Structure formats: C-alpha cells, structure tokens
Amino acid sequence: MLEETQETEEIIQRVAALDIGKAELTCCVRVPSPDAPGKRLQEVRAYQTMTRWLLVMTDRLRELGVTRVVMEATSDYWKGVYYLLEAHGFETWLVNARDVKHLPGRPKTDTLDAVWLCKLAERQMLRPSFVPPPAIRQLRDVARYRADLVAVRTAEKQRVEKLLEDAQIKLSVVASDIFGVSGRAMLAALVAGERDPKVLAQLARARLRAKLGLLVEAFSGFFTDQHAFLLAKMLARVDQLDADLAELDAKLQELIAPFAHAVERLDEIPGVGQVAARLLLAELGTDMTRFPTAGHLVSWAKFAPGVKESAGKPKGSGSTGHGNPYLARVLGEAAVAASKTDTFLGERYRRIARRRGKRRAIVAVGRSILVIVWHLLADPTARYHDLGPGFYDTRINADRAKRNHIRQLEALGYRVTLQPAA
After folding, report:
1. What is the model's pTM?
2. Is 95 helix (H, G, I), strand (E, B) or coil?
3. Which of 98, 159, 324, 361 is the most exposed place for a label (fewest CB within 10 A)?
C-alpha cells in the first residue's frame, strides 16, 4: 500500500559546496541553465583561504545568486569560512563527513569531492550539523579551554605525586589531598630545603594533626635537591594554572550573565551545579528549536543506542557511539553526583546499577538529565520537579511483583502460601 511521506522533492536551485583545506578550498556552484530548462550550469573554482580571497568568493556567490553554501567539517579549517559566509547573510550548512562519503570505486580529488557534495546538497540529501550562534560560541570557547586547563592541571598534580613516590615521600598515603592547605605548606618546605620529617609533620593543620605519627613516617624518604628543583617547577606550573582558571571563571561569569535565568533553572536538577549548568549551556545553547524533540537531542549527543539492523536482526553491540566529549564529561559527572542523592535520579541510578552495572547506569541517568535539560530550555517557564525516590514503587504492578517473588521462592525449594494481612 502506497503511503505519503513527509519529504518534499525540492531541488535547491542555486547552491554551492566547499571542499576546504588549510591553504586552499575548492568551490563548486550549481545553478539553473537559462537556455535549457531542466539543465544545470556548474562552476568549479579554487580559492585561497586568506580573507581577501574568501571575500572574492563571497562576491562571486552573491553574483550567481547562491542561497545555500554547504561544507564538510574538516578539522578547524571550516570555522573561518563558515563564520565569514554566515556574517554575509548566506544560509550556511556544516555537514558531517560521514554523511557525504564518496561512492566507492570512483576517483577522489578535491574537485570531484566538491561536485559530489554540491549534487547532494541541491537534492536535499544532507542534514546540517548543529553550530551554535555567536554568543554561545564565545561561551563554548572559554568553557572548553577551561576544561582543557583543568585536565592539564590534573596531569601536573599527578606528576608531583609521581615525583614524591620517586623520592619515597608517602604524603599521598596519609593526606587525601596533597594540594590542600597542609599539603602545600609541606611541599613548600621541601622546596625550601627542609628535610626533617618531624618538622615537616608539624606543618599539618586541622584534622591532619591527628596523623602526626604517620606523617613523620611518610616524610622519611630520599628527597634530594634534584627533586626539590623539579617540585618547584611543578608547583609554579600548578599555581599559574590556578590563576588562569580563576580568570577564565571570571570571563565565564561575564559571558553567562545573559543566560542567568536558564542557569538558575538547570541548577535545580540533582547533580547539576552552577558550573555544570554553565558548561551545559555552552555546549547546547538555549534555543531548542534545533532539536524538535528531546529524543533528537539525546540522539545527537550519542546518549541513545545506535540503530543497526540487517535481515531483520539487530547488529553490533548497541553502543551509543562517540558524541561531544565535553558534553559527555559534564553529563557523566552530573550523573555520578546525582547517584548519591535521595531523589528520582539517584534511585534510577541505583536500580539500573544493580541490574546492568554502574557504567550503563551513568549513561542512563545522563540521558535522563539531558531530557530534563531539553524540557527546561524548550519552555522558559518550566521548573524542575523531582518525582522522588519512591516513584518507581508507586508504579509497580502488585500482582506481577507477587508472582515474581513466589517464583523466586519456589526456585529455592519452598512451597508458598499467601494469606492477606490482618
């Protein structure tokens, strides 16, 4: 039985496609032929990626009446071209290279790639990737750089711990954080030349003073001037990174100010704090019209199992695939934080972790958080309402639960007789 589909067969009359490299790009333009109805005219031309040549290309596209420009996401080379064309009023599409893979068995050159991409674009066989507006892009750049610096600082702190282990200084065995107030005072004393374990142990503060005996043993090592030299460099590096992160936090606070209301509402989600809310907005933006439903957002973020079927049978492991790593990191940390709360999300994590394991539970709770975020951003008046940890208990079918328990007891060799409670 023939059924009507949602697609409309429409040819983009004036379209351009760019195959972008670092120093040069190939531009293919396809427009209708004025002399032969149904025929197409095509122009393929190479331009340098310097701004002056990009402006020349822009003038040529405007002269030909091009309405849509499509390009592949090639490294970071696409960004400058995309932003320039966007600023000049073109409908600019960034597409996934996987969606435009050239047919096998055919030659591959920059020219042929540009022509192939243009033909796909004019027939509407491509999907645009999500590129946030300029304000969100600025926020994203700062947030991602901050995340990268946090990773660099963590690596530097790990180097400090390895250096102490090399010197047989077991401070990390006694102190949970060697970069706390007590730990930094002890490390500074080591750099300054202090080697007496008892003197170093007396630098402990607060609860760490209850472990003075252990600290004396921990500092009984072979710390040399070579270790002191390297430790000084590492600590200076950590301090500089701390200062840079403080400046980035101030810049984030400035950029996030227009979205303060959205941050406040996202902060109500269990596991999502102020920092996580800012990072979520940096990756997703506030305009959810790009994602028609929460399912579209979850699929884009790769927090839903991939669909792969052949001969009526599902193939593959059902893994979610690799999505936005910065978004995945934030959702994973939020899911772990939510798992420790007495909320609906916490109970959801514990239920899934018992049956499927902790890793799957983190992905499942991360997906739930992403769905909640979509609803909060799609409706500016919506607020988060927690269903509570007892939500699942109110949805359990009593008869089914009774049958399951009886079956389990009978499997253990018991004969079960039920009597209603008085």
Report:
1. 0.80
2. strand
3. 98
